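User: I've been trying to design a sequence by hand for this structure and keep getting stuck. Would you show me what you'd pick, starting by listing the structure so we're on the same page?

Assistant: Good idea, let's start from the same input. This is the structure you sent:
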């Protein structure tokens, strides 16, 4: 690894033999952070320094809430390369990047920005964002060559993003700690999937564990996790960005999202009266949140007592014996085989969680959605977007659930016989006369 020149290392160590006499939030090229020294944001909300998690003897550079005990770490720099003793030094290197050095003066972590300021400083902001910026300019998020908010680990704070910048390729997603004592990357990731409608997906390795309700360009279908009385959700879905962010309604309140090492997603808020973190909501919260629990064309309803899974109307279990035994993995199949071009239509299902693997087409009138799907034999379902656009599904539908309130309207392709349609032949000429019955 790269080494910081010895004379710079020696000078900076001498410069900080004693601890800071006053709290500061910024370091410049002639300053360092070592040992028990820390940076503290201007309003003393966040603190940056070295810590050892739990019972571990390893040391990491991290950011935590200054006034909250026990220590709650929200970001870690060297989670893949811990220090083995107390010799770590945080500095600005000769190339203008923020660097972390071990006892042999080897760089074990760097901001690694290809574009650095002429007069670089590193600053810890009251948002919890640790930024590299031009020392002669003010705080301007658009001009940061590097910021910790672009590299989240297990926590999302107000102002951070989950999603992607479609032009730069920047991705913002969460990775769990390996354990309470080990911040190295764990088994779980929480990442935005924007191949169709945006949805945030929890995975263990490559296996999907849970996915949120998707949302559209208008923010319709906001997932439950991201709407409550504590926060204002922020959704972006445009040509340049697709992401979720949030702000606290009460600016003085403290809340965060975290993916735990045990595989749950939590929205947590700090209680000033109880002096502890309070879990606002945890996902997955019930068996219907388990990914694809009911198989293809199966729908999950947690309010059904005897069995939560059933086949959608117009479908039947692929293996009735397995389905009755609560083994729903085989899913369901159409009761009447669909034959494209034979008078098929759509059944309307309400209060649904949209199936996985959607496809979104913008700039289409809602009245055109049905015709577009009907004229494509591969299209098995459609929905209308909150604004000009249509949502389509191709292939088997999976991971559907039914809500007692809320949810969306989904139109699923059915054989004519399932919709109560008959086809009459006139004695003078052939016509297809469809009589639609309620059902």
């Amino acid at each position: 690894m790269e080494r910081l020149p010895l004379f710079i290392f020696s000078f900076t160590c001498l410069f900080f033999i004693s601890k800071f006499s006053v709290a500061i939030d910024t370091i410049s090229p002639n300053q360092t952070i070592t040992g028990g020294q820390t940076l503290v944001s201007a309003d003393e909300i966040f603190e940056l320094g070295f810590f050892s998690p739990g019972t571990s003897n390893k040391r990491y550079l991290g950011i935590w809430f200054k006034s909250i005990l026990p220590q709650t770490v929200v970001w870690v720099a060297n989670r893949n390369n811990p220090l083995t003793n107390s010799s770590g030094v945080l500095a600005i290197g000769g190339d203008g990047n923020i660097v972390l050095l071990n006892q042999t003066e080897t760089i074990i972590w760097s901001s690694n920005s290809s574009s650095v300021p002429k007069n670089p400083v590193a600053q810890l902001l009251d948002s919890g964002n640790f930024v590299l910026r031009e020392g002669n300019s003010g705080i301007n998020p658009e001009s940061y060559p590097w910021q910790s908010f672009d590299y989240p680990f297990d926590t999302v704070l107000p102002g951070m993003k989950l999603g992607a910048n479609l032009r730069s390729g920047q991705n913002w997603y969460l990775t769990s700690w390996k354990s309470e004592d080990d911040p190295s990357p764990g088994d779980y990731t929480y990442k935005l999937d924007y191949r169709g409608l945006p949805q945030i997906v929890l995975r263990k390795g490559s296996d999907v564990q849970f996915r949120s309700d998707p949302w559209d360009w208008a923010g319709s279908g906001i997932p439950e996790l991201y709407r409550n009385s504590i926060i204002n959700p922020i959704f972006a879905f445009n040509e340049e960005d697709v992401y979720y962010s949030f702000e606290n309604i009460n600016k003085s309140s403290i809340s965060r999202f975290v993916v735990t090492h045990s595989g749950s997603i939590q929205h947590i808020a700090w209680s000033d009266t109880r002096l502890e973190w309070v879990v606002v909501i945890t996902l997955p919260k019930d068996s219907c949140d388990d990914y694809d629990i009911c198989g293809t064309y199966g729908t999950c309803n947690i309010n059904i007592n005897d069995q939560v899974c059933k086949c959608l109307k117009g479908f039947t279990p692929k293996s009735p014996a397995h389905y009755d035994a609560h083994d729903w993995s085989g899913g369901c199949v159409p009761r009447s085989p669909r034959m494209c071009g034979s008078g098929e239509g759509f059944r309307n299902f309400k209060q649904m969680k949209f199936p996985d693997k959607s496809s979104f087409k913008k700039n289409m009138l809602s009245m055109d959605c049905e015709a577009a799907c009907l004229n494509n034999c591969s299209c098995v379902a459609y929905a209308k977007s909150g604004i000009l656009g249509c949502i389509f599904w191709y292939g088997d539908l999976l991971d559907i659930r039914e809500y007692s309130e809320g949810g969306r309207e989904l139109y699923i392709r059915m054989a004519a016989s399932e919709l109560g349609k008959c086809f009459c032949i006139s004695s003078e000429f052939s016509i297809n006369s469809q009589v639609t019955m309620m059902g």
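That's my pick for every position. To get oriented when you compare it with your attempt: The domain at 1-148 is CATH 2.90.10.10 (Agglutinin, subunit A). The chain has three domains: 1-148, 152-285, 291-419.
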